[in-house]
Amino acid sequence: TSHQLGQNFSKMFEISFENEKKEREFAWQTSWGMTTRSIGVMVLLHADDKGLVLPPRVAKIQVVVVPVFFKDTNVEELTNSARLLVEQLKENGVRAHLDDRDNYSPGWKYNHWELKGVPVRFELGPKDLQNNQVRAVIRRDGSKFQIDRANIIAETKNLLEKIHKDMFLSVKEQLDNRRKQAADWPTFMKELNQNNVVLTPWCESAECEGKVKERSGIESKLIEASEAEIQLTGSAKTLCIPLEQDPIKEGEVCFHCGAPAKKRVLWGRSYSVSYTHLTLPTIYSV
């Protein structure tokens, strides 16, 4: 999050400095930081109807190993092999966990760890043990394939990196597809009402920004509920002025007030929604 705190706290705690005119002045402060809302964004962007889908770099458990027992399985031998695999993974920097609980079936364990979003599951059954392999199951897409135990460390690390990269590129594509441009008010409102963030030329006037917020909020409430499953009622607000942007061209004007544009700014919406006939996703507690 980022906040312009102004002089509120500097006045409260008497934080001042000497300006270039040799006068005491209260400091202007900002606040920057990562907050727990970033966890919420991660859940919203990646989760599915089976539960969480965690990026490998932030997952507490990156790989879970599940022994698969059958009627004539040598339980001790299979469990020891699974335990050795987990130790081997941990020694090489992989956050691995062995689920050797004997009061749950393998299928129950699969669902349990899918719900928790563990990126990779290794299944180890009698045939896998015989062939010196494990069966890998990827949480994000459900793909399944065999991995030789001889190459397990290198394959696992490459796999975790690939999953992380694929997840990042997937949501980046969503973001890029939702980033639109507008040079006038009608186009701005059209893109905003389609749940996009909008880049516009802007005059950098606080008064203009306030009017954009007020006007967009009023106009959004005029949208008929039948036009969308979710009726939008939020006002637009400035999100940021991108550091990398095309220069303002000569004669280019603010999309709202028509004054000479100074920068390009990204706008978004704080949502207050009313649902008409929207099917909501399942919410899990883990």
Give a quick set of tags describing it.
15 strands; alpha+beta; 4-stranded mixed sheet; 5-stranded mixed sheet; about 290 residues
Question: Which helices and strands occur, and which strands form pairs?
Answer:
Blueprint lengths: L1 E5 L1 H5 L3 E3 L5 E3 L2 E4 L4 H10 L16 E5 L7 H17 L4 E3 L7 H10 L4 E5 L1 H5 L2 E6 L5 E5 L3 H26 L1 E3 L3 H8 L4 E6 L3 H15 L9 E3 L3 E5 L22 E7 L3 E3 L11
Parallel strand pairs: 5-6, 5-7, 10-11
Antiparallel strand pairs: 1-4, 2-3, 7-8, 8-9, 11-14, 12-15, 13-14
Describe the model.
The protein is built from eight helices and 15 strands. It has a five-stranded mixed β-sheet, with helices on both faces. Strand 2 and strand 3 form a beta hairpin. The chain is elongated. The C terminus is likely disordered.
Task: Sum this structure up briefly.
The chain has a five-stranded mixed beta sheet, with helices on both faces.
Instruction: Report the order of strands and helices.
Output: EHEEEHEHEHEHEEHEHEHEEEE
Integer-rounded radius of gyration: 27 Å
Please tell me the overall pLDDT: 89
Alpha carbon gap, first and last residue: 26 Å
Strand order of the largest sheet: 6-5-7-8-9
The portion of residues forming beta strands comes to 15-25%
Structural class: alpha+beta
Morphology call: elongated
Q: Give the low-pLDDT segments.
A: 273-286
